Amino acid sequence: MKSSATLAVLTLLSGVAFGDAPPSGTEPAIGTKAVLEDRYPERRIAFPGGVTGLPDLTYSTLSGFRPLTLDLYVPAAPVSGGAPVIVYVHGGGWTSGHTRHSGAFENWPGVLASLAGRGYVVASLNYRLSSEAPSPAAEQDVKSAVRWLRVNAARFGIDKRRIGIWGGSAGGQLAALAGTSCGVAALEPPVVDTQGPVESACVQAVVTWYGVFDLAPIAKNVTAPPPVARYLGCDGGACTDDKIALASAIRYVDRSDPPFLLIHGALDKTVAVTQSEKFHAALQASAVKSQLLVLPDVDHSFVGSSAELTRNASLRALHATIDFFDATFQPAR
User: Fold this and answer.
1) Sheet containing strand 121-125, strands side by side
2) What is the pLDDT of residue 117?
3) What superfamily in CATH does domain 42-127+139-213+246-329 come from?
4) Domain ranges in the chain?
5) What pLDDT does 143 receive?
6) What pLDDT does residue 222 have?
7) Is residue 44 exposed (0-12), middle (13-18) or buried (19+ Cβ within 10 Å)?
8) What is the pTM of this model?
9) What pLDDT score was predicted for residue 224?
């Protein structure tokens, strides 16, 4: 503890008595209530082709949880009527992952920025993992991000009528669920800010890479891996039919669903290729436009027995994805 003499010396050196106001012009701005928003200056990252990256934008703040963020990639020139949006949802078994990785791609932000260079606004989002909250929390977060993009359409030059979603593995499960569960009350996110109309969380196109669409075969297996049980919120006990169905995109398939592209490795030992095959059949049976691309000789994440196989499969999946979104949304390029 400093002595009174020390405090007096510090006061003389500073020229300001303790408790006095700082010199004129240096006072910080003070609001009328506690400020909880993140006011750190917005970062802007330059990518090739004039694309601007806006990392770590907060799209949702829920009491008791960390702020949820996304990375946004914006094309160089404004698009008349707004640009279509591609939302990317990362994988990681619902237990890990982040906005800036996918499969064997060494520079995923660069890939997403290249899509923005084609005339899309691209968002890559974080969501609550299973250790933070079980299903349906992650799906509600995905839908919150879609709503947030529509709310901010004018700010980022977005055409809110054209939003596509794309995910890999666990992200593929969440993307497919967003595609088939439009308007399902149990999966809708809570309305935190009631100012203005609530935007739709529905999407207009879906791409999945090695996704899971029916959790029953996994969750009902007595040797089911812990990540599935943790995600469903039945760790240490039996997963109920209701919990399994709630998180299974195949449950909600009907003719109103948007077009789908499903891509899967034929040798996938993490998520069986039959997941995509059966989901594709269910979509077609309901007259939903669906394409299935099975890549030979590769496992999960399109990883093959050689660098060449992995590269070729990964690029084939990426090009098919771009072609699908281009054909669906016809962005200005």
Assistant:
1) 45-46, 52-60, 68-74, 121-125, 83-89, 158-168, 205-209, 260-265, 290-295
2) 96
3) Alpha/Beta hydrolase fold, catalytic domain (3.40.50.1820)
4) 42-127+139-213+246-329
5) 98
6) 58
7) exposed
8) 0.88
9) 54
Mean pLDDT, consecutive 10-residue stretches, the chain (333 aa), reads: 50 52 73 80 91 96 92 92 97 96 97 97 97 96 97 96 98 98 95 74 98 92 74 81 96 98 98 98 98 98 98 98 96 71
Convert the chain into a string of H (helix), E (strand) and C (coil). Answer: CCCHHHHHHHHHHHCCCCCCCCCCCCCCCCCCCCCCCCCCCCCCEECHHHCEEEEEEEEECCCCCCCEEEEEEECCCCCCCCEEEEEEECCCCCCCCCCCCCCCCCCHHHHHHHHHCCCCEEEEECCCCCCCCCCCHHHHHHHHHHHHHHHCHHHHCEEEEEEEEEEECHHHHHHHHHHHCCCCHHHCCCCCCCCCCCCCCCCCEEEEECCCCCCHHHHCCCCCCHHHHHHHCCCCCCCCHHHHHHCCHHHHCCCCCCCEEEEEECCCCCCCCHHHHHHHHHHHHCCCCEEEEEECCECHHHCECCHHHHHHHHHHHHHHHHHHHHHHHCCCC
**Residue 9 pLDDT:** 45
The reported pLDDT for the residue numbered 299 is 98
Of residues 166, 181, 123, the one with CA closest to residue 263: 166
What pLDDT, on the 0 to 100 scale, is given for residue 77?
87
